[in-house]
Design a protein that fits this description.
There is one protein chain. This protein is an alpha/beta fold. The chain contains 19 helices and 32 strands. The strands form 9 sheets. An 8-stranded mixed β-sheet has the order 12-11-8-6-7-14-15-25, with helices on both faces. It is globular. The structure holds adenosine-5'-triphosphate (ATP) and magnesium ion (MG). The site of magnesium ion (MG) has 3 residues, from loops. Adenosine-5'-triphosphate binds next to strand 26 and strand 27. GO terms for molecular function: ATP binding; propionate-CoA ligase activity. This is Propionate--CoA ligase. Belongs to the ATP-dependent AMP-binding enzyme family. Keywords: ATP-binding, Ligase, Nucleotide-binding.
Length: 634
């Protein structure tokens, strides 16, 4: 068996041969002529001349071979619904949806905007687009009308599909009026809005001539047979806007063939799932993890995929583990932020379920601190694999790859560069870092299959945003900051513009957060750099305690602050010691669970936090304001 090192080396040194082999994991109507066309750097085309279809690979081929096998397992703890769709059922629903789209005028290459809660129809809609060669753009359901409108104007969809309402924590979130407002705000609203009426928001308004009822259309197309449209490998499959943590979201454009091959390969080498197995990914279809690993990859691999609507702790903190037990989940994928939520709960929830089917838990999206990593790995007693990636790449950049070699896991590290990625760390002058030296995480192009091919409609922005860090060499910049140890294990230290510069020493926010988190009372923390006349910048920490009452009095808070400072001294040295540690009950995050450090920093420096359309809970900002003003007054 080939080990990780040889596998990775071949993917870089014999790119063509390596990816030709991987391309055999998917069905092609016409086999590719050229594996990699890199004649126009940094743009790359994979599997040129090959024609294929994502929906065929995800649905049709399995429906033909194993029609009764489960494909989509839908679980909603919001509406108390559970339903399993076989591959044959899924194909039938996708064909109906495709027929509806065609009737509403959607053609190959047209965009369809999907603004949906986590319901099966969202999955049907994505696959129906893929089937007919339409380009989907999924926008996280519940985004404010202004955010939705900017995405409408950028993607210019001919059709939008939505629902009357989403649900979260038992509360209805009406969507339809947000859709109406967004269509009013947009300069290029879609001709039609297809509405899935869940019966949650009874009295939503309908616009005559524009709004179309899904149930009615579905009845019309009971026996729809819609053949797949064979697409050239480079034709776009979808547009997905980045989370917008660092500013204006970018429309990431993905191809068809490269994405299909990258996902199929990742299921074999990295996530290790195949026919007869079940995957449970707790993300949302509005994010890249949802696109790749709730919908496309597990289905391409012939697995059953669990689509979950609800939170990790409702009706109780055992809900996810019961899903694992009931559906014999083999591969689970979640986010550090969810695990930190579960860490605050009783571990009996986890231990009362039979989790013996579970092979691996994958986590991605945010730095996974060592303490949380160790905790969940020890409780589950299986490998917990941190993987680092971006909307831009569509699949992991750094990860352990148990399908290739069972390399030991180091807590706090997403292990090694994934095959296909020529990943390096760079100094500011473009030279390469050595071991144990912090630098910018860069990828020497061409980017592997599955990664973004351009920014939708803005080739120049693709080059200026991602390939302009150095004049020479030409490198894809991740805008993240990382380090590699003597054994080749990487750690992501934070985003480049979050680096804290204390008296000339550059510290990643992650390093200080990691140190604060070694204090057993801390559940979660955000560290930001705050302007300081003497030192340039000083770190400031905002911590959530496991026991909120532990810092109820000013004396207790002072004592805890001193203890935490000592932890940082031990772990990192006095240079990283926070100027202040404030205690709050929650931290400002995007709806995808990413820390809004920029907003915290702005408040700490007495500035306006700016546009926060993507914030999950605005009251977290008010708390930070309050804490800061208490000290200013005191
Ligand atoms: P925008 O680019 O619009 O500001 P965003 O970067 O938050 O948004 P995503 O593409 O969803 O949008 O997030 C990718 C980023 O998340 C990475 O660049 C990195 O900063 C962080 N990240 C993802 N996975 C990990 C991980 N395993 N460890 C550390 N950081 C991670
Ligand atoms: Mg980003």
């Amino acid at each position: 068996m080939v080990g990780y090192i040889d596998f990775h080396r071949r993917s870089i040194e014999d790119r063509e041969g390596f990816w030709r082999d991987q391309s055999r994991l998917v069905d092609w109507q016409q086999t590719p002529q050229t594996i990699c066309d890199y004649s126009r750097p940094p743009f790359v085309k994979w599997f040129v001349g090959g024609t294929t279809n994502l929906c065929h690979n995800a649905v049709d081929r399995h429906a033909a071979a194993r029609p009764r096998d489960p494909a989509l397992i839908y679980v909603s703890t919001e509406t108390d619904t559970e339903r399993t769709y076989s591959y044959a059922d899924l194909l039938c629903e996708v064909e109906r949806m495709a027929a509806i789209f065609i009737e509403l005028g959607v053609k190959r290459g047209d965009r369809v905007l999907i603004y949906m809660p986590m319901i099966p129809e969202a999955c049907f809609a994505m696959l129906a687009c893929a089937r007919i060669g339409a380009v989907h753009s999924v926008v996280f359901g519940g985004f404010a009308p202004a955010s939705l409108a900017t995405r409408i104007d950028d993607a210019r969809p001919v059709l939008m599909i939505s629902a009357d309402a989403g649900m979260r924590g038992g509360k209805a979130i009406p969507y339809k009026h947000l859709v109406d407002d967004a269509c009013r705000l947009a300069e290029h609203p879609p001709a039609h809005v297809l509405i899935v009426d869940r019966g949650i928001d009874k009295g939503f308004a309908r616009t005559e001539g524009r709004d179309v009822d899904y149930a009615e259309m579905r009845r019309k197309h009971v026996d729809a047979a819609v053949p797949v449209e064979w697409l050239e490998s480079s034709e776009p499959s979808y547009i997905l806007y980045t989370s917008g943590t660092t500013g204006k979201p970018k429309g990431v454009q993905r191809d068809t063939g490269g994405y299909c091959v990258a996902l199929a390969a990742s299921m074999q080498h990295l996530f290790t799932g195949g026919p007869g197995e079940t995957m449970f990914v707790t993300s949302d279809i509005g994010w890249v993890v949802g696109h790749s690993y709730i919908i496309y990859a597990p289905l391409i691999a012939g697995m059953a995929t669990v689509m979950y609507e609800g939170t990790p702790i409702r009706p109780d903190a055992g809900v996810w583990w019961r899903i694992v037990e009931k559906y014999r989940v083999n591969v689970m994928f979640s986010a550090p932020t969810a695990i930190r939520v579960l860490k605050k709960q009783d571990t009996a929830w986890l231990h009362s379920c039979d989790l013996s089917s579970l092979k691996h838990l994958f986590l991605a999206g945010e730095p996974l601190d060592e303490t949380t990593h160790r905790w969940i790995a020890e409780e589950l007693d299986i490998p917990v694999i941190d993987n680092y990636w971006q909307t831009e790449t569509g699949w992991p950049i750094l990860s352990a790859m148990p399908g290739i070699e069972k390399t030991p896991i180091k807590y706090g590290s997403p292990s090694f560069p994934v095959y296909g990625y020529d990943l390096r760390l760079f100094r500011e002058d473009g030279s390469e870092c050595g071991a144990n030296e912090k630098g910018v995480v860069g990828i020497v192009p061409p980017l592997p299959p599955g990664c973004m091919t351009t920014v939708w409609g803005q080739d120049d922005r693709f080059v200026s945003t991602y390939f302009s860090l150095f004049k020479d060499p030409l490198v894809y910049s991740s805008s993240d900051w990382g380090i590699r140890d003597d054994d080749g294990y990487y750690t992501i230290l934070g985003r480049m513009d979050d680096v804290i510069n204390v008296a000339g020493h550059r510290l990643g926010t992650r390093e200080i957060e990691e140190a604060v988190q070694t204090h057993p009372g801390v559940a979660e923390v955000a560290v930001v750099g705050v302007a300081d006349d003497v030192k340039g910048q000083v770190p400031m920490a905002f911590a959530v305690l496991k026991d909120a009452g532990a810092a109820a009095t000013p004396e207790e808070a002072k004592r805890l602050e001193a203890e935490i400072s000592r932890k940082v001294d031990e772990w990192l040295g006095a240079i990283g010691r926070p100027a202040r540690v404030f205690f709050v009950s929650g931290l400002p995050k995007t709806r995808s669970g990413k820390m809004l450090r920029r907003a915290i920093q702005a408040l700490a420096e007495g500035r306006d936090p700016g546009d926060l359309a993507t914030i999950e809970d605005p009251s977290t900002l008010q708390q930070i304001r309050d804490r800061l003003s208490e000290t200013r007054e005191g």
